[in-house]
């Protein structure tokens, strides 16, 4: 990447402070752009879901991996629970969506509570794995909550065989004017497919491990028996280990990483496959080099840019994210390593600019909190708008979760000091309520940005990007108007 007119910025820059110049391009279609990440993780698009309790869980992990990214299960989750989540992600179908299933005698109220857990808006009624019908949210309107689903379900249901192509599945659904259908393999429910899902399966490539299963990551902190926790997570089959703390450039991180790396190396399989280690967070070249020297394969960059983070306002510590990514990526490249940009993205343009600055993936948190797939319960405000609660990982709420085994005195003492928002409403976008909808927008923007740069890969994109510095008025000029002026 180079700056327009080879100008050297006088100040550090956020994503809002910069723009990308279109250059001569031979890339005719955005579908000619290969978004496979160059960091060796195995993801086919540069999106990672942050290890935040309000954002990343089993549903998020399998959905994002199905489209080519990876999600990290948070460090606050008990190891045995993480193990169950990893097993379920690995058991999920790499193409078809995982259905929500109920039995015929399930109450309507129970079924309605389950429907928002997935974006396809229905539960499949099964008996011994065989589908009997489908119930949607509309089917439950005005029905007694203690009625049973067999009384309201639709029994005239289109099912599609598992050996059909996505195009054939799409055509079958379109012909019947249906949005969703169960997928059947030898008479047994294998998954569900939607019209949009059938289209997506021809555009995205899932992120798969060596055995063809969906990929998933998990996080550990730097306190306690970190090598022991890492060993347990590796035994559960995770594909990426995130060693995470708010201030990654500290002695405790640098002392912990070699032990974690040794544990990882000892767990390498017979084929020599080693799980990559992501460590952070830092915002300087020195911090990046120190973490790489200590054993990190990828360094996570970002202090204070997140929507739930109050670090900069509380402490004055942090750095504008675009400049942080640019400097850290250059430092990592000196030794053939990579960085992830963690936080501060609020628009597709920000993801493209992070990649232009040199990030191999962009970690997203709060933006994905307001989706069907995030772990929280769906809540409606007095106006009927759907939202989920989000909170920062250094907030009092997160600290309380993380220190649940400490004494009451210790928990109360630690609660006096917090950085981060404990309660925030992340509203679902009615037009893009699923994480897949947001990924569509992000990837469309990134692919298009690559064509403007004449880049066919993410590495090309970073090398070819020309970035300029703009005023606030320049940023405002680029925003669309939703009403006349």
Characterization of this structure:
With 485 residues, the protein is of the alpha/beta class. The chain has two domains: 2-94 and 207-477, TIM Barrel (Alpha-Beta Barrel), CATH 3.20.20; 101-193, CBS-domain, CATH 3.10.580.10. The chain contains 17 helices and 20 strands. An eight-stranded parallel barrel has the order 3-4-11-12-13-14-15-16, surrounded by six helices. Strands 1-20-2 form a three-stranded mixed sheet, with no helix packed on it. Strand 15 (338-342), helix 11 and strand 16 (361-364) form a beta-alpha-beta unit. Helix 1 (58-66) packs parallel to helix 2 (79-91) and helix 6 (226-235) runs parallel beside helix 7 (251-266). The radius of gyration is 23 Å and the shape is globular. The mean pLDDT is 93.
Which secondary structure elements does this structure contain, and how are they paired or packed?
Layout (H helix, E strand, L loop, with lengths): L1 E2 L14 E3 L26 E3 L8 H9 L3 E4 L5 H13 L9 E2 L5 H7 L7 E6 L2 E7 L23 E2 L4 H10 L4 E6 L2 E7 H9 L13 E4 L5 H10 L4 E5 L6 H16 L10 E6 L2 H10 L3 E4 L9 H5 L5 H13 L4 E5 L5 H10 L3 E4 L1 H4 L9 E2 L5 E5 L5 H7 L5 H8 L8 E4 L7 H19 L4 H7 L1 E4 L2 H6 L8
Parallel strand pairs: 1-20, 3-4, 3-16, 4-11, 5-6, 8-9, 11-12, 12-13, 13-14, 14-15, 15-16
Antiparallel strand pairs: 2-20, 6-7, 9-10, 17-18, 18-19
Helix pairs in contact: 1-2, 4-5, 6-7, 8-10, 11-15
